């Protein structure tokens, strides 16, 4: 057989008539759903039967993320923080996937996955302190707001360049695979726009050929800033690319927390059992603006948002499920919302008042130590500030 | 890239009259083994530069089970033989081929290093490092800084063959060090021969910062010297003074060091000019103290590199020397570099900052 084959990887033989394979010849990958918008389970076998406490935590984390987004978005509008990106409409894909992972699994994120951190225990103050870049930010105020990271929670620090984290996630997964009794996988989140970057291609091909236990979690929310998906790709979304790379693929309803949970759980088990990658595409809708620097009404009609904001809204859906179970207590939830809003507001005020790091921190962590040239430059700045201390906002910064 | 490979391999193995003709272009320098051997006990053995690099990676793989070596075609030994036999010795899961994609190699390597494992990534030619530029500049270099030291990719080393090879033309000859020298967070290193290549590579692998080691590929086979068999490191960020002199300071790195050494000998014999020869070794961070101490003594300095003149690393050196040694300078700082053109094929002998151009620069600077 080998002598007649052009390529060791191609198994199928010959045909004697020209046959183009057209995109419409492929069946689209179906969207996996567990419940309908009213919260009814479509197939009883698919109910993950998460216990009441877990569902409650999922619901409250989504609500908390939503409240945090609203307040920090407003803070940016008031000029209190420089930038913000909300997670509206995508809460279930964060919380549902995080809930299905082990806390030891390593997360590489794009920037719209704050819910994953929240699920793992990142606190209200940690989110807000990062956005203010104050003395309690573990990132020391070096990056823009929403570029979170946590060593303790196995959440790699976010960076702005799109898709760069995807081949990195594959490299980390390769290291995990080599460890004895490995029970950790890597999950890497990215949007449908980022999937067009060359690094995404690199990562998927490396993951398949080097057999790495990594979940490629694509948040397909319909837009990359102003660019709708029809200008982003012409294939069947992102998950259909799995076949081209020789990789398993799944597509789920990203607004259905139970579907995201089940799909992620299956994906994780598959990765660890087979040491292979998988693409998991969560279909959803970006309800908010791309960022605080964007006004999405410039490129999409308000009516388009209506359905996603109501019947197909992830928080509504889980609420309906809870109502059916008799697990939803209107009064308790209203109190909870009031309580967290208060906590966020207080934290927001406190974070604003906290000082930033000593400006000298600007020169550290470039390398593991501070080389001579940087020590010299730090000294230059020290001398300069001695002369002009009143012209710089030194009072906002710690002095060492 | 693949198509040119067999050509390179034959050119670097001079057998028969055809290769003698090819070799004519290669000999723009004469390799001088290091006079001072590193202070390492034990056996020494003759190695060329690719065997010294192979030996260093052998040690790294043996010392730390987390160490991985990967890139395009490294499993069968590498197109320059640097990884020969290492897959057989350490297993296909530690020494392996990647798909042909430089941004993937760099990104994958960063991810390996971010877990604390040691990554030795090979880019087949420095000319093909540019697809990985984003991963190197925006990611690797900034990993520690942007996370407030929560995460780093310090155990990452990228190796890339670089520099003129006689007939490499535009995409098998480039010297891209200046692009990376503009990137805080990286260390950039260039060895001049087998002893330094082994010591610097081991230092880079063990250093806690992402390092790029650019290996002058024309030296892989032609440079041979007695290399200590044991493990040792050469300090990063430290220049070597290879010849002492009071009249002119000559600064170069990689193959150019050997060009300058020959020129310095000739200047001593013909002009009675004593040159101080410095191999800069580390491009980033660079050894300002050694350089400026020398220039303060000689008052004259010539910087030579294969890369184009404009914004080459010579510009940084010249500006810094001018700042630190202004009152000691007896003549304008001279730069003898590649021209501001792409690296040409048939015109290579006219492109390189060769012995004659460097020698003319010495004649001119002592008469200023």
Automatic annotation (TrEMBL), chain A:
Q: Per the entry, which co-factors are needed?
A: thiamine diphosphate
User: Which reactions are catalysed by this chain?
Assistant: N(6)-[(R)-lipoyl]-L-lysyl-[protein] + 3-methyl-2-oxobutanoate + H(+) = N(6)-[(R)-S(8)-2-methylpropanoyldihydrolipoyl]-L-lysyl-[protein] + CO2
State whether keyword Membrane applies: no
Record's InterPro entries?
Alpha-ketoacid_DH_E1_comp, DH_E1, THDP-binding
GO CC terms of this entry: mitochondrial matrix
Q: What is its EC number?
A: 1.2.4.4
The Dehydrogenase E1 component domain, residue ranges:
61-356
One Pfam family recorded for the sequence: E1_dh
Q: Where in the cell is it found?
A: Mitochondrion matrix
* Membrane listed as a keyword: no
Cite the entry's keywords alphabetically: Metal-binding, Mitochondrion, Oxidoreductase, Potassium, Thiamine pyrophosphate, Transit peptide
Q: Name one GO molecular function term.
A: branched-chain 2-oxo acid dehydrogenase activity
Broad class of where this protein is predominantly found: mitochondrion
Domain of life of the native organism: Eukaryota
- Give GO BP annotations, semicolon-separated: branched-chain amino acid catabolic process
Q: Which family does it belong to?
A: Belongs to the BCKDHA family.
Query: What PANTHER family does this protein map onto?
Result: 2-OXOISOVALERATE DEHYDROGENASE SUBUNIT ALPHA, MITOCHONDRIAL
This molecule's function is given as: The branched-chain alpha-keto dehydrogenase complex catalyzes the overall conversion of alpha-keto acids to acyl-CoA and CO(2). It contains multiple copies of three enzymatic components: branched-chain alpha-keto acid decarboxylase (E1), lipoamide acyltransferase (E2) and lipoamide dehydrogenase (E3).
Protein name, please?
Answer: 2-oxoisovalerate dehydrogenase subunit alpha
From TrEMBL, chain B:
In terms of domain of life, where is this protein from?
Eukaryota
Q: Where is the Transketolase-like pyrimidine-binding domain?
A: 47-222
- Can you state which reaction this protein catalyses? N(6)-[(R)-lipoyl]-L-lysyl-[protein] + 3-methyl-2-oxobutanoate + H(+) = N(6)-[(R)-S(8)-2-methylpropanoyldihydrolipoyl]-L-lysyl-[protein] + CO2
Q: Does the keyword GTP-binding apply?
A: no
Q: One cellular component GO annotation, for this chain's record?
A: mitochondrial matrix
Query: What does this chain do?
Result: Together with BCKDHA forms the heterotetrameric E1 subunit of the mitochondrial branched-chain alpha-ketoacid dehydrogenase (BCKD) complex. The BCKD complex catalyzes the multi-step oxidative decarboxylation of alpha-ketoacids derived from the branched-chain amino-acids valine, leucine and isoleucine producing CO2 and acyl-CoA which is subsequently utilized to produce energy. The E1 subunit catalyzes the first step with the decarboxylation of the alpha-ketoacid forming an enzyme-product intermediate.
Quaternary structure per UniProt?
Heterotetramer of 2 alpha/BCKDHA and 2 beta chains/BCKDHB that forms the branched-chain alpha-keto acid decarboxylase (E1) component of the BCKD complex. The branched-chain alpha-ketoacid dehydrogenase is a large complex composed of three major building blocks E1, E2 and E3. It is organized around E2, a 24-meric cubic core composed of DBT, to which are associated 6 to 12 copies of E1, and approximately 6 copies of the dehydrogenase E3, a DLD dimer.
Tell me the protein's name: 2-oxoisovalerate dehydrogenase subunit beta, mitochondrial
**Organism classification:** Eukaryota, Metazoa, Ecdysozoa, Arthropoda, Hexapoda
């Amino acid at each position: 057989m080998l002598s007649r084959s052009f390529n060791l990887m191609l198994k199928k033989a010959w045909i004697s008539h020209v046959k183009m394979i057209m995109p419409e010849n492929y069946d689209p990958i179906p969207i996996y759903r567990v419940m309908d918008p009213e919260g009814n389970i479509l197939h009883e076998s698919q109910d993950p039967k998460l216990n009441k406490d877990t569902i409650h935590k999922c619901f409250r984390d989504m609500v908390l993320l939503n409240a945090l987004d609203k307040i920090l978005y407003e803070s940016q509008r008031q000029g209190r923080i420089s930038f913000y990106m909300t997670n509206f409409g995508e809460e279930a894909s964060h919380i549902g996937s995080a809930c299905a992972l082990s806390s030891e699994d390593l997360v590489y994120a794009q920037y719209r996955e704050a819910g994953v951190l929240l699920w793992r225990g990142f606190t209200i103050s940690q989110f807000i302190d990062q956005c203010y870049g104050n003395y309690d930010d573990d990132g020391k105020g070096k990056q823009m707001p929403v570029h979170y990271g946590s060593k303790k929670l196995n959440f790699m620090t976010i960076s702005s360049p799109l898709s760069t984290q995807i081949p990195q996630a594959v490299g980390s997964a390769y290291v995990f695979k080599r460890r004895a009794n490995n029970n950790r996988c890597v999950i890497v989140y990215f949007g449908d726009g980022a999937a067009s970057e060359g690094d995404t291609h690199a990562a998927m091909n490396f993951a398949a050929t080097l057999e790495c236990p990594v979940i490629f979690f694509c948040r397909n929310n319909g837009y990359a800033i102003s660019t709708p998906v029809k200008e982003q790709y012409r294939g069947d979304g992102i998950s259909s690319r799995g076949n081209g790379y020789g990789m398993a693929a799944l597509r789920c309803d990203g607004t259905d927390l139970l579907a995201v949970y089940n799909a992620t759980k299956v994906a994780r088990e598959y990765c660890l059992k087979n040491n292979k990658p998988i693409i998991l595409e969560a279909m959803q809708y970006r309800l908010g603006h791309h960022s605080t620097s964007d006004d999405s009404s410039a490129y999409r009609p308000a009516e388009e948002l209506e359905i996603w904001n109501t019947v197909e809204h992830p928080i509504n859906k889980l609420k309906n499920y809870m109502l059916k179970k008799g697990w939803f207590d209107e009064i308790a939830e209203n109190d909870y919302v009031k309580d967290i809003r208060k906590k966020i507001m207080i934290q927001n005020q406190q974070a604003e008042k906290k000082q930033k790091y000593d400006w000298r921190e600007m020169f550290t962590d470039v390398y593991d130590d501070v080389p001579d040239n940087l020590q010299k430059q730090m000294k230059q700045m020290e001398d300069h500030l001695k002369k002009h201390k009143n012209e710089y906002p030194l009072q906002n910064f710690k002095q060492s | 890239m693949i198509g040119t490979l067999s050509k390179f391999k034959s050119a670097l193995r001079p057998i028969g009259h055809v290769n003698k003709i090819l070799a004519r272009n290669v000999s723009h320098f004469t390799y001088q083994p290091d006079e001072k051997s590193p202070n390492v006990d034990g056996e020494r053995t003759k190695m060329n530069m690719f065997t010294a690099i192979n030996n260093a990676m052998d040690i790294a793989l043996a010392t730390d089970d987390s160490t991985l070596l990967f890139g395009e075609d490294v499993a069968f030994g590498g197109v320059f033989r640097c990884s020969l036999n290492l897959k057989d010795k350490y297993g296909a899961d530690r020494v392996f081929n990647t798909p042909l994609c430089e941004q993937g190699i760099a990104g994958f390597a960063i991810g390996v290093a971010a877990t604390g494992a040691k990554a030795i990534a090979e880019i087949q030619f420095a000319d093909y490092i540019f697809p990985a530029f984003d991963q190197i500049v925006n990611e690797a270099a900034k990993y520690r800084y942007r996370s407030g030291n929560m995460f780093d990719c310090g155990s990452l080393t990228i190796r890339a063959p670089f520099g003129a090879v006689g007939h490499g033309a535009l995409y098998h000859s480039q010297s891209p060090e200046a692009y990376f020298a503009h990137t805080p967070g990286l260390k950039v290193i260039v060895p001049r021969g087998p002893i330094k290549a082994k010591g610097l590579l081991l230092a880079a692998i063990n250093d806690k910062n992402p390092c790029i080691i650019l290996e002058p590929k024309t030296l892989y086979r032609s440079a041979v010297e007695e290399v200590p068999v044991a493990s040792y490191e050469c300090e990063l960020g430290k220049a070597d003074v290879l010849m002492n002199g009071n009249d002119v300071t000559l600064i170069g790195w990689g193959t150019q060091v050997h060009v300058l050494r020959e020129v310095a000998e000739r200047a001593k014999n013909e002009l009675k000019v004593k040159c101080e020869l410095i191999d800069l070794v580390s491009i980033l961070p660079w050894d300002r103290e050694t350089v400026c101490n020398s220039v303060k003594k000689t008052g004259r300095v010539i910087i030579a590199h294969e890369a184009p003149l404009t914004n080459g690393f010579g510009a940084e050196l010249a500006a810094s020397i001018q700042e630190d040694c202004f009152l000691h300078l007896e003549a304008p700082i001279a730069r003898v570099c590649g021209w501001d053109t792409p690296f040409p094929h048939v015109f290579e002998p006219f492109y390189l900052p060769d012995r004659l151009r460097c020698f003319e620069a010495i004649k001119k600077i002592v008469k200023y």
